[in-house]
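Entry for the shared binder. Reason: the reviewer on the internal report wants the predicted structure included alongside the sequence.
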Amino acid sequence: MAKISAQELAELVPCSLDYVRRLEGLGILEADGDDGGFPPSDVHVVRLMAAFEEAGIALEDVARGVSGGALSFPLGMFMPDPVGMTETYAGLAARVGRSPDLLRRLSRELGLPPPSDDRVRAEDAEILSLIVTHLDLADDEELSRFARLYGGSVQRLVASGLQFFDLAVRQRVGDLELSDEERDALVYQKAAGYTELVRTLVPWLQTRHREHAVLEYIVGVTEGFMEERGITPPQQRQPPAIAFLASPGTRRWPKTEEIRPRPPWRRISRASCRRRRRHTAGNP
């Protein structure tokens, strides 16, 4: 990928140009000798340095580690290419016909709080647009719940995956009889492979599970529709297996007839139960 200028680097982070120059002066960033450009992956290095400072780690100490060869940050091996911030939440809201506050809220629920300058990354804007377009029948609370569902799930998945990598890979590399430089290089190499594995595994596994879940969902919904539309006679619902008896002074449980029946999409049909048993038995 082509080199970028210090100003472009600052805009992609985003940060001030002075901060980029400061990191360059410390030797943490190194411009190309021919055109004075920086690799785009340095965007992640700048963000990492800001995270170090936020954690109370002095950049002067980091710079000494880098200059002495004890620290290195080849983040381009496993981090994505940086994406620019092409518009604001207000501009995106005008384009998709929804309120800016809703889009900011969805972004926060996804785990990506809007920056102080209210700009939004191009890829984030695309996803937010897809959410409000494809879920146009959902109200704001339902959209928020959707964003929390996927945002929280992916955040937990990513955090757990990093913990696994640290335990199964990084710590074991640390036990090898190698120099610090060789250990770091091996960890980054393994991290690149692990990133590629997860990038391939997650969408594949989601697709495979969706195949079975969608069929089960359709069976349950269709079974309910067939009863409601008079195609098949209503099935007798089994009473709860356990009867709760209220003793004096305790909360009274509702009577069976007061419990609302499950809507069709919540019912688990006999056919779907059989399908689930086949699935767990190893069938595709």
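Summary line for the report: Strands lie at 85-88, 119-121.
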